[in-house]
Amino acid sequence: MTPMTPVAPVTPDQLAAIPRERLPALLRLMPKAELHIHIEGSLEPELMFKLAERNGVQLGYPSVAALRAAYAFTDLQSFLDIYYAGASVLLTEADFSEMAWAYFERAAADKVVHAEIFFDPQTHIERGVPIETVIKGLGQAARRAQAELGLSAKLILCFLRHLSEADALRTLEAALPWRHHFIGVGLDSSECGHPPEKFARVFARSREAGLHLVAHAGEEGPPAYIEAALDVLQVERIDHGVRCTESPALLLRLAASRTPLTVCPLSNVKLRVFDTLARHNLPALLAAGLCVTVNSDDPAYFGGYLNQNLVETFAALPQLGAAEAYALARNSFEASFVPAAQKAAWVAQLDALFTEFALEGAR
Ligand code: HPA
Ligand SMILES: [Zn+2]
């Protein structure tokens, strides 16, 4: 089907007619956008060892199996320590390109048609890797993803919140000559003790430069961090944000404004934000009318890419059915930073697929 073919929106009755056993296939087949993926978190142990050898970097683990065995996290910080150590193998433009290309191939297999990927330049600048090496390497893979996979890919530069705002401002100035290679800025790393207010000036400067603004908030931090990200940083999306349910007023505000939350269920369980997927608040967030999306965060570390997140989460939560699958995919396009006409074309593909599954279910 071409994007211009008119498609009637799938109806609630049609969604209700889709049998539960068809959900895994539907979740895998539906077109979707991924909006919360740290590209350094897509670095699989096998590629990490290959790059370590190529670049003469000592990893501190004797084997892929030993490294994987270390992926037993107790909280965000215990993950970040290993994640930054893993990123130390990345030195050349080719390294960044190879890592991103591997992610794009995996994402395309999951029917991701658009990805907005985070990168952490300060992790690399600190080790003497020029920012242009990082941006050019990732940009090259993004162009190849569009050309060879039909996957549109954009970059979002993240500031590390455990470092100073002055460091973030220096990083932004160093990146601005490459402004045309990235669409926005974000805020990640250790949340507690590093509230959004710490980065008010660098976000204001980024806004002046015409960049989109997002921030991690309410993963481990309190609802007040989500409010500060909205009010002080003026972000357009909240990454994670799951702790918003602790504040009824904030929940109402997020629903009314349709501020997107990029939720990462497998990450939340691995980092002990929730004990199990069955206890995740995704159904409550959807029921409250929020523009929630599902994402993989750091798939090489947390046990799965986007479809794995969707399939496992739906299997664990009987409240989630075809209507919620449709809402999540539709939200992923609504929440993306792409032109309205492109969003409409993807939503039309979504309607066509869900209608097909409904008709098959009714037969
Ligand atoms: O889940 C995360 N939270 C904060 N910082 C991060 N950096 C990579 N992943 C994460
Ligand atoms: Zn994240």
UniProtKB/TrEMBL annotation:
<dbReference type="InterPro" id="IPR032466">
    <property type="entry name" value="Metal_Hydrolase"/>
</dbReference>
<feature type="binding site">
    <location>
        <position position="297"/>
    </location>
    <ligand>
        <name>Zn(2+)</name>
    </ligand>
</feature>
<feature type="active site" description="Proton donor">
    <location>
        <position position="219"/>
    </location>
</feature>
<dbReference type="InterPro" id="IPR006330">
    <property type="entry name" value="Ado/ade_deaminase"/>
</dbReference>
<dbReference type="Pfam" id="PF00962">
    <property type="entry name" value="A_deaminase"/>
</dbReference>
<feature type="binding site">
    <location>
        <position position="216"/>
    </location>
    <ligand>
        <name>Zn(2+)</name>
    </ligand>
</feature>
<comment type="function">
    <text>Catalyzes the hydrolytic deamination of adenine to hypoxanthine. Plays an important role in the purine salvage pathway and in nitrogen catabolism.</text>
</comment>
<feature type="binding site">
    <location>
        <position position="298"/>
    </location>
    <ligand>
        <name>substrate</name>
    </ligand>
</feature>
<keyword id="KW-0378">Hydrolase</keyword>
<keyword id="KW-0862">Zinc</keyword>
<comment type="similarity">
    <text>Belongs to the metallo-dependent hydrolases superfamily. Adenosine and AMP deaminases family. Adenine deaminase type 2 subfamily.</text>
</comment>
<keyword id="KW-0546">Nucleotide metabolism</keyword>
<keyword id="KW-0479">Metal-binding</keyword>
<protein>
    <recommendedName>
        <fullName>Adenine deaminase</fullName>
        <ecNumber>3.5.4.2</ecNumber>
    </recommendedName>
</protein>
<feature type="domain" description="Adenosine deaminase">
    <location>
        <begin position="31"/>
        <end position="351"/>
    </location>
</feature>
<feature type="binding site">
    <location>
        <position position="38"/>
    </location>
    <ligand>
        <name>Zn(2+)</name>
    </ligand>
</feature>
<dbReference type="InterPro" id="IPR028892">
    <property type="entry name" value="ADE"/>
</dbReference>
<dbReference type="InterPro" id="IPR001365">
    <property type="entry name" value="A_deaminase_dom"/>
</dbReference>
<feature type="binding site">
    <location>
        <position position="36"/>
    </location>
    <ligand>
        <name>Zn(2+)</name>
    </ligand>
</feature>
<feature type="site" description="Important for catalytic activity">
    <location>
        <position position="240"/>
    </location>
</feature>
